[in-house]
TrEMBL record:
Highest classification ranks of the organism: Bacteria, Bacillati, Actinomycetota, Actinomycetes, Micromonosporales
Sample GO molecular function, one term: endopeptidase activity
Residues of the CAAX prenyl protease 2/Lysostaphin resistance protein A-like domain: 139-230
A Pfam family this chain is assigned to: Rce1-like
Protein name: CAAX prenyl protease-like protein
Length: 247
């Protein structure tokens, strides 16, 4: 690849990440510094996902849907820049049972040890208290949480795995550095939750990046990530909160 082409590709990667999860990673880094320098210990602070945006229910719903929609715009940009994303990322319906089966298997393989890591991080005091959902108990809350879970999965797996891994390999990066970059980025934008969240998501990033490199299919990762977030968001919203006291 010519020097000019490599420079343009580096700039493209930085722009895509700067508009999406790279930006989130910077904000997350600032947030963890703020948490560590606050009066209360990290273990006594709270990180809230899916918060309510307004006391007016239908305005809140509007904000939620707009947030989900615009969070997916960087995905459209990444797919456009990949030129032929269906063949590059496996975003097709040719292997539905493969995608679904591996998605469920990956969700189980990541989710069950993840619960153990959350417990250990809570005991060590290296995570903030996580509130996966704080929406009002209205008819639209569960559908919005499911859409939010799907949005997270589509954004993260297409940008951080499919797009980033493909582009870094185009730059000629060695496999180990490609996997490390994807995994560290994934961990970094979860750092606002604490160091346990960083470590757990970085490990997940290694597994997902290696799976994509081996199979060239991102759909199983989207399925797995969606299932993990649906269980976390909807489960927390519907089940008695006393069940989660051990976390």
């Amino acid at each position: 690849m010519r020097v000019e082409s490599r420079t343009r590709l580096r700039a493209e990667i930085l722009i895509v990440l700067g508009l999406s999860l790279g930006q989130s990673a910077i904000y997350s880094l600032v947030t963890i510094v703020a948490r560590l320098t606050a009066a209360a210990p990290l273990s006594q602070q709270t990180a809230t996902l899916n918060p309510s945006q307004s006391a007016r229910p239908y305005l809140d719903l509007t904000y939620q849907l707009l947030g989900i929609f615009f969070a997916l715009v960087p995905v459209a940009l990444a797919l456009y820049l990949l030129r032929s994303p269906r063949s590059l990322l496996g975003l097709d319906a040719r292997r539905p049972w493969f995608d679904l089966g591996w998605g469920v298997a990956l969700a189980a393989a990541i989710g069950l040890p993840g619960l153990g890591l959350v417990f250990v991080a809570a005991q060590l005091g290296i995570n903030a208290n996580l509130v996966p959902a704080a929406l009002p108990h209205l008819w639209w809350a569960v559908p919005v949480l499911i859409l939010s879970a799907a949005q997270n999965a589509i954004l993260e797996e297409i940008v951080v795995v499919g797009y980033l891994v493909t582009k870094l390999r185009d730059l000629g990066w060695k496999l180990v550095w490609v996997v490390a970059a994807s995994a560290v980025l994934r961990g970094s934008y979860h750092l606002y939750q604490g160091f346990g969240a960083f470590l757990g998501n970085a490990v997940m990033g290694v597994v997902f990046a290696l799976f994509f490199i081996r199979t060239r299919r991102v759909l199983p990762l989207v399925v797995a990530h969606t299932l993990l977030d649906v269980v976390a968001f909807v489960g927390y919203s519907l089940l008695p909160h006393s069940w989660f006291s051990w976390l």
